[in-house]
């Protein structure tokens, strides 16, 4: 699934939900920095994307960047 999502964001980089889903898989795989990057790209498209916000918060928390995880 992650391979398909990486292809999707290359084809449609302005599609926020693709980035948010990619961030979800990266989070589950323990790729905290990749998740952070993908979630931020999703949030550029839609700052209220709940999935992207949750993924970003989780990734920052896992990196022990607690202050950054608080809006």
Q: Secondary-structure map with pairings?
A:
Elements: H1 2-11, H2 16-28, H3 32-45, H4 50-62, H5 66-69
Helix pairs in contact: 1-2, 2-3, 2-4, 3-4
Description of the molecule:
- The protein starts with a helix and ends with a helix.
- It is globular, with a radius of gyration of 11 Å.
- Helix content is 76%, strand content 0%.
- The chain has 71 residues and is mainly alpha-helical.
- The protein has 5 helices and no strands.
- The chain has helices at residues 2-11, 16-28, 32-45, 50-62, 66-69.
Q: Which short descriptors sum up this protein?
A:
71 residues, mainly alpha
- Report the count of strand segments: 0
Roughly what percent helix? over 70%
The Cα radius of gyration reads 11 Å
Low-confidence stretches: none
Number of continuous helical runs = 5
Largest sheet: none
Averaged pLDDT = 95
Helix/strand class: mainly alpha
> What percentage of amino acids are in beta strands?
under 5%
One letter per element, helices H and strands E, the order comes to HHHHH
Q: Distance N terminus to C terminus?
A: 30 Å
Name the overall outline: globular
